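Suppose you are handed only these lines of text.
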Amino acid sequence: MTETVHVNLPGREYDIEIGAGVLDLAGARIAAIGGRGHVAILTDETVGGLHAASLQEVLRGAGLTSDVLALPAGEATKSWPHLERSVEWLLEQKVERGDVVVAFGGGVIGDLGGFAAAILRRGVRFVQIPTSLLAQVDSSVGGKTGINSPSGKNLIGAFHQPSLVLADTSLLNTLPKRDFLAGYGEVVKYGLLGDAEFFTWLEQYGPALAEGDMDARVRAVRRSCEMKADIVERDEKEQGDRALLNLGHTFCHALEAATGYSDRLLHGEGVAIGCALAFELSSRLGLCSQEDPSRVRQHLKQMGMKTDLSDIPGYLPDADTLLALMGQDKKVVAGQLRFILSRGIGHVFITSDVPKDAVLSMLNDALAQR
Ligand code: NAD
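From them, the structure of the protein bound to nicotinamide-adenine-dinucleotide can be written out as follows.
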């Protein structure tokens, strides 16, 4: 089963092809994009070790030669030194304007590789072949590329849309369970922010999907990509609606900062906890029913995911400090904290009108349960 989602951005449109085995299409699809017939592949050492040979084989089958640069796996790779190394390597590969760069990995490689392609010769085309669930449902779509700065996450970057996304769901078979569930946090987010029926479907099929049900995986990736594509088409550069995709992220970024961006809390885990907190806050403000946050937490727990602040190991700072960390989020506008709150599952909105005391009291209660 192969599904295609089209991202309709005039002049920068592209397809996302989703399915078990779509990696096999890479040769034909990349050859059709054009270039000199040589493909530069950026990957990380883990994904490269497991899957780069298969990708190169498929490219060879379509008459394309390729070379691979495998960078260390992990968030620290989204940095100036690895960007410099990648761009210099691409120049050594003699990548020209018409050529194609492939970003083959999770969100780290997708963001870094996309940014390298954006700045190389003022922009070369690139193809995303996302290999983590998070990358397949979120980071490979929509053209946000970049690296982290010592001053904060994702502070340096560019909007640069890929020419094609190939999301091969069978590659997820080698993804560690913890990374899979972290990516699932983003899948749940889509149901919560805009499709109550999808959330109900996830409540039913989420466990099978995690166990490896391929049809369920394809359907979940497709629905997530459709929702992301729809929002990106409406608001490519995040002037408005695209911020809805940040449901759970204001809390998540504060928790990531509080845990030092370490493996105490993966990004998708923070998103899941952040979604639960956003629904809890919405319910306390009388915006949604009390059942909604319970339902969100119940599904996350059913999936074996981190759900509450008590699921984060080690020290966490007090509520005031967490609130101050939220204020450092790059989405803060003119010092005003913005929250994505909910009027019910599938219905969210952006607001700056949230009493600070309500946030503090909720965080204090959540911390007291640790
Ligand atoms: P990641 O790229 O670090 O991948 C997680 C881990 O899984 C890594 O160790 C990687 O080597 C491994 N891995 C990936 N695919 C694998 C596979 N098929 N088999 C075995 N191991 C595999 O992290 P991620 O969770 O994919 O992405 C997180 C990054 O994405 C963050 O930097 C975040 O800022 C970014 N992000 C970007 C956007 C965007 O719109 N650009 C959106 C959300 C997140």
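What can we learn from it? Residues 44, 46-47, 50, 73-75, 78, 105-109, 111, 131-132, 134-135, 138-139, 142, 144, 154, 171-172, 174-175, 179, 182, 267 surround nicotinamide-adenine-dinucleotide (CB under 6 Å). The two ends are 44 Å apart (CA to CA).
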